[in-house]
Each structure stands twice: as C-alpha cells, then as structure tokens.
Amino acid sequence: METTFLLDDFSHFYSFFQDGTNSFPDGSGGGGGGGGKKRKSGTGGEDDGGGLKEIIASLLMLDEEEQVDQEKWVLDSDNDRALFEENHRMKAQAMNEYRADMVEWFGEMEESESSRVKRARRSATAVAASASAAAAAVAASASAAAAAASSDNVGSESSSQPAGHHRRLWVKDRSKAWWEWCNHPDFPEEEFRRAFRMSRATFNMICDELDSVVTKKDTMLRLAIPVRQRVAVCIWRLATGEPLRLVSKRFGLGISTCHKLVLEVCAAIKSVLMPKFLQWPEEEKLKTVKDEFESISGIPGVGGSMYTTHIPIIAPKVNVAAYFNKRHTERNQKTSYSVTVQGVVDPNGIFTDVSIGWPGSMSDEKVLEQSSLYQRANSGFLRDVWVVGGSGYPLLDWVMVPYTHHNLTWTQHAFNEKIGDIQRVSKAAFARLKGRWSCLQKRTEVKLLDLPVVLGACCVLHNICEMRKEEMDPEQNFDLFDDEMIPENGLRSASSAQARDRVAHDLLHHGLAGNAFL
Q1: Exposed end of the chain (fewer CB within 10 Å): N or C?
Q2: Distant-in-sequence contacts of 274-277, Cβ < 8 A, 24+ apart
Q3: Distance from C-alpha of 161 to C-alpha of 23, rounded to nearest angstrom
Q4: pTM of the entire structure?
C-alpha cells in the first residue's frame, strides 16, 4: 500500500520524461541531424522507460529510508524524554523527602529549645523567689509583731521551692583542668614560659596592673571569670595564634566568651600598660639612646631605628584593593592581604613609637607620612635627632637613610654598612615580636576595626618581655620577608643630604667605617 502511494506521488515525473521522449521525430532524440542512421523508436522508448523506473525506485528507497530514520529519531527522543522525566521525578521526590526531614528536625530542635528556655526561666524564677523570701525574712526579724506573719509567709513560699536549688543548663559544663593545672603553684616554670612566652612573675605583674580594669563582679546567676584566667586567655591566644575553638577547650569557656575576653584584655593593655611601657623616651633617656646607637654605628644623634612590617589578614569585605599586598602575592604565589605596623625601637629592641593598621598596598614612605611620628617631627618634636630607616624611606630632616643610587663611592659604601648595623636592631626586634606572638604570623580572625588594638597589645607585651629580659626558645625564631621599595622622591631635603655626606666622610676618615664593604 505504501509503495503504491509513493508511485502515485512520482507519477508526474514519469509522464514528464515520457512526453519528452516522444516529442523527438523518428526517434532521433533531436540531436542526430539528417546524415546519421535513424534508431528505432520502439527500442529507444523501452531503454528510456527502464532508466526512469530505476531513478524513481531509487528516490522511493531514499524517501523510505528517510522516513524510517525520522521514526527512529522520534522514538529515541521519546525514550530520552521519558528517562529525563523519570529522573526529575525521582530527584524531586528525594528533595521533598529531605525537606520534610529537615522541617521535622528543626521543629524538634525548636521544641527542645523552647522547653529548655522554659525550664531555665522557671529555675530563675525559683532562685529569685528564694532570694526575695530570704530578704523578707531578714527584714521582718527587726519587728517582733511582724515576725510571726512573715515567718508564715516565708514558710509557705519556701515549701513550694526546693531548698538549695541551682540553675541547670545555664552554662555548659566544660573542663578547666588544663588552666587549673597551669595556675597551680606546682606547674613547671619552663612549661609556663613556653605556653605564655613569659615567666610567672611577669604574668603576675601584668595581672596586678590590669586588675582594676579587668575585674568583673559576681552575679546571682553566675560567678565572674577571675582576672588571672581572663589575662591568660588573651596572652595564650596571642602567643599561640590558635583558633578560638581550641582556646575554648583549653580554658573551659565558650568561644564567644574567649573572643570577648581577648578584645577586652587587649583594650585594657592599650589603655593601662601602653602609657607606661611604650612611650618616646624623655630627654635624659634619649641621650642614653643616642650614646648607645653611636657606640653601635659611630653615627651621632641617632634616637631610633625604624622598620615597617606587614601582618597578614583575611580579605576584607570593603576596600579590598587597598589591602592587597602585591609583593607578598608575587613571592608566595598566593593572593595576600595585609596591614602595616611601623615601629621605632631603641638599641635594646624596645618599641618607642608604633603606627598600626594602614593598608598593605601602601609603601613604607606613605605609611610614614600617615603616622603621628611624622606629624610630631614636622612640628619640631624631633629636633637634633635622627631616626634611621631603610631604603624604603625618604631622606628627611630627621630621617637618615642609606644611599640608593648606583656606582657608590667607598665613603658611601661604608656609610651604608653602618646604617645597616642600626637597621638590624629594628629588624631583630620585629623578628622577636612575630616569633614571640605567633598570631602575627597567620591570618587572624579579628575584625579589621579591632585589629589595631590587638597589634598594639602585642607591641606592649613585647616591650614588657624585653624590659624584663624574658628569653625566647630557639624554635620561636622568625625570619622577616618584607620587601622594601625605593621611594619615588627619595631626597626631600638638601640640608639632610649634606649632613649625610658629612657623617659618611667622618666615618671613613676617622676609622669608624670598617672594611666589610671591601
């Protein structure tokens, strides 16, 4: 039936070719002319008819194959669609079951939390009622006439509340065994020093200094955390750099409580201890500092050695590009963000000035210009005093830096050698700072706004340890990797350039330059 239908479709092709054949006279096909032999029309008609039949049969076969392929494609598409719909239905069913389970689980959690809160409120009410009843009984004892009535009321109320009832589930029961052992007098001194980076005597001194600021009062609901434990949480967190969950396990306190204690104690260190242990030296002390630096380098009038380091941070949510540290990123092959800490130290490595928290993309020159030291110096505060910096700082009326141009003379090489001796003092101080307080070596969890307080507390604690001659373990040593960038305008004062040349000349011709540059 299908073949007959297709023959009918192509019958007009057959008639067209047949009419074209019969239109030539004498079977010549229209191309022989008059001089050739005439072929028989009957034989030619049969040959042409056979060729047309073969063409039509081929067309029919091609059309049939195309239709079969089309039907197969439709069948495959239907199968794929059915399979896709089945998979989608199964996934939707699984997601609905998962959602139902989660809704049920959250419902159970809400019911459990609601019942816990109700029990806690009932317990608090019972404690408050017991306390008020006891207070009423004490007040009523002053009057003999009211004593009997009060005693009846108290008796009726106390009978409804169990005696000696204590709150439950208000504070999670955590083990404080580690801290209790550390706080015990029999705890080994070496282990205490290794854990807190200082001796027990220094720790006790810090606790005594902060006692009036850090102490909290007990309440009816819970006892206040002792001062020693508060200070220990902060110092151990700064010393080890461990995450807050480990600090929580060590001291038996909540994670949020530990975070709050770290910030509170750091703020107390900044407000109470910084004015005592991190200040620019007075006139008499400054003279001693100058003499000690001159004995180190032979350069007179040096009041401090300046250096700027970077503290890694997590990428901030705002103004990310400002904190991007290109030099550390290129060296570590990992995207790095940082804030800066600029510090000036005396010959003993004790900080006398710090500027903290400027974005890590700023150069040492820009950080210096934003510091309070720069403002004070420009107002005449550092008269007749040199602060020695590295090649990343500009030459100013009060900042002495090494020569940075090419083809230096022997005099300039000798001067740079002595500047390097002074610079090593500040670099060593920052290396001990980062080595002693490991939180400065890794990206901190502290918010960007709170970070200057924490970094300032680390500098103050560093000074306390240095002043009290606290030794560091060899495994705590740290190598600095901060890069220095040559400032765009390294020479800003012609008088300072002349003064530097005179100092370099004196060092070489008075035999103070040494020969390490040769």
Answers
A1: N
A2: 274/456, 274/460, 276/209, 277/460, 277/463, 277/464, 277/467
A3: 126
A4: 0.66
Secondary structure class of 40 (helix, strand, coil): coil
Q: What is the pLDDT of residues 6-19, one digit of tens each?
A: 445 545 555 555 55
Query: In degrees rounded to 5, what are phi and psi of residue 226?
Result: -60, 155
Is the separation of the CB atoms in 403 and 428 below 8 Å?
Answer: no
Predicted pLDDT of residue 220:
81
- Using CA atoms, how far apart are residues 92 and 88, in angstroms rounded to an integer? 6
Nearest Cα to Cα of residue 401 among 484, 285, 511: 484
Tens-digit pLDDT profile for residues 209-241? 999 999 998 888 788 999 999 999 999 999 999
Reading phi first (left if > 0) and then psi (alpha if -120 to 50, else beta), residue 166 is in: beta
Cβ contact 339:470 at 8 Å: no
* Angle (CA) 380 383 387, round 5°: 110
Q: Which helix (H) or strand (E) holds 311?
A: strand 302-313
Q: Are 400 and 391 in contact (CB under 8 A)?
A: no
Which range has the worst mean pLDDT, 153-167, 372-386, 459-473?
153-167
Write down the pLDDT at residue 85.
87
Residue 103: what residue type?
V
* Contacts for 515 with CB less than 8 Å, ≥ 6 apart: none
Give the per-residue pLDDT at 170. Answer: 52
How distant, in Å, are the alpha carbons of 120, 191, 224, 252 from that of 123? 5, 42, 20, 24
Amino acid at 102: M
Amino acid present at 256: S
